[in-house]
UniProtKB/TrEMBL annotation:
It is a multi-pass membrane protein. It is found in: Cell membrane. This is ABC transmembrane type-1 domain-containing protein. GO terms for biological process: transmembrane transport. The chain crosses the membrane at residues 20-45, 175-193, 200-217, 268-293, 314-337, 380-399, 404-423, 435-453. SUPFAM superfamilies: MetI-like (SSF161098). Keywords: Cell membrane, Membrane, Transmembrane, Transmembrane helix, Transport. GO terms for cellular component: plasma membrane. Residues 263-453 form the ABC transmembrane type-1 domain.
Length: 465
């Protein structure tokens, strides 16, 4: 596998570049539609019904949405587009609303009372938070590239589909080429993703995708009208007390059986991954901090962090399953490496803004620049840098807690017995009533973890900027 990775074959299949363009197109259009609808949802996010709606729908992972839309549209680009756009719109709504709330209210007080609401919003609020909105949207696009990639694990022809095929067939040179292309794509985002070029990119993505198939409304009627209803209700001629009892018994048997086992495994795996994520983040963030390493070392460190945070957890888990066999360990490693790299990157960005005390021993490499003397680096890490960024570290960890829970669930598609395993099995067996019930349980579990995380962050008085 290692030899294959260092000898990438970019011409092993004629579909490599098609898969790359398809992945980017789905991600770009998914973020475009998600940001558009999320922006308007953010304007009414103060209403409780909107917050509940967004909390529930964003708690369901894109991969599970893809499994649902596959039953409606089949292997159509529309499946991938809806699977990304829907949860992303709800995520954008939440974050955009928080950004609007944090905007300075002073300018709005200086506007004439005769000014209309739209003008007041555009000139006194939107103009103030424009940079934050753009920055977060750019970040979500990077997330969408990973989401688009892993949709290949359910048959969508993105990079993930060809990666899974290459690994399964032992074509590691082809897998190495696909991964290298993906890393180059992530690294070069700041180069090619320019605001002025976005209309061109969006138009090109729309015309590049295969034509959307005609929607078969019979699938909607069948899926929502009968398939997702519990089997005791679906096959009952009339709804009476006996049918209701059978339905309750059906739910209870699932809750005490597969659901209970899935919840326990999901929680155990989530907590293990959360702890290892924190350890990895604390170990890797100094790799790109100018206080600890020189210019060459920081370049290498940035490359390592890009690989860690950019590789989708599904792909990492798939690789570790091939190497280590089926167990929880591959899933823990995959989740911890991906999230640890992301948090490490954020901590490094924060650490690079710190100003040291005047008495810190430095060796000067130039005018007004210097690096900590080697003998003092460990003391600097534990007694100067880490204490000052530790509250942010806790905020990032608890902020990613709910995300790790969502990602833990989807690893069940690879055979890890989390809730996702039973969801995937139910779809394969065409037991859609069970699949939807398991997805709802997963969403409620994520909402519970998110609420607990917010409560802990509030008690600790820490914020993830």
């Amino acid at each position: 596998m290692f030899v294959g990775f260092i000898t990438p074959d970019f011409f092993a299949t004629e579909y490599i570049f098609d898969a790359l363009f398809f992945t980017v197109s789905i991600a770009l259009l998914g973020v475009t539609f998600g940001a558009f609808f999320g922006f308007f949802l953010a304007l009414v996010f103060e209403f409780r019904i909107v917050r509940i709606f967004c909390a529930f729908f964003r708690s369901i992972h894109e991969l599970f949405w893809a499994l649902i839309f596959l039953q409606l549209f089949g292997l159509d680009p529309l499946t991938a587009l809806c699977a990304i756009s829907l949860p992303y719109a709800c995520t954008f709504a939440k974050v955009y609303a928080e950004i609007f709330e944090q905007a300075d209210t002073t300018p709005a007080k200086t506007v004439s009372k005769k000014a209309d609401i739209l003008s007041v919003f555009v000139y006194t609020k939107l103009s103030l938070v424009k940079k934050q909105l753009i920055s977060y949207t750019r970040y979500r696009f990077e997330c969408a590239l990973r989401s688009s990639t892993i949709l290949g694990f359910v048959g969508i022809p993105t990079l993930g589909f060809h990666l899974e095929s290459a690994f399964s067939q032992g074509n590691y040179s082809q897998a190495g080429a696909l991964l290298l292309l993906f890393y180059l794509l992530i690294i070069s985002i700041n180069v090619w993703l320019k605001a002025k070029l976005l209309p061109i990119y969006i138009a090109a993505a729309w015309f590049y995708l295969p034509a959307f198939g005609q929607v078969n409304w019979d699938n909607f009627t069948r899926f929502f009208g009968s398939d997702i209803w519990p089997s005791p209700l679906r096959y009952a001629a009339d709804i009476d007390l006996n049918v209701i009892n059978q339905t309750l018994h059906w739910y209870w048997s699932l809750l005490t059986g597969e659901v209970f086992e899935g919840i326990v495994n999901t929680l155990i795996l989530t907590q293990l991954a959360l702890v290892v994520t924190g350890i990895i983040a604390l170990l890797v963030f100094p790799l790109t901090v100018k206080l600890f390493v020189g210019f060459t070392g920081r370049i290498m460190g940035q490359g390592i962090l890009v690989v860690l945070r950019s590789t989708p957890e599904m792909i990492l888990a798939f690789i570790f399953l091939l190497l280590l066999g089926p167990s929880m360990l591959p899933a823990v490693l995959a989740l911890a490496i991906h999230n640890g790299g992301l948090i490490g990157f954020l901590l490094a960005e924060l650490a690079n803004t710190l100003k040291l005390r005047p008495d810190t021993p430095l060796q000067h490499n130039g005018i007004n620049s210097g690096r900590v003397i080697k003998g003092h680096a460990i003391s600097l890490y534990f007694y100067e840098v880490l204490p000052r960024i530790y509250s942010s570290f806790l905020a990032f960890i608890f902020y990613r807690w709910e995300v790790i829970m969502r990602e833990t669930a989807i690893l069940g598609v690879l055979g890890v017995t989390t809730l996702g395993f039973y969801i995937d099995s139910a779809f394969e067996e065409m037991r859609f009533d069970r699949a939807i019930f398991y997805i709802v349980i997963t969403a409620l579990l994520c909402i519970g973890i998110d609420s607990l995380s917010r409560h802990i962050r509030k008690k600790l008085n820490v914020k993830a900027a």
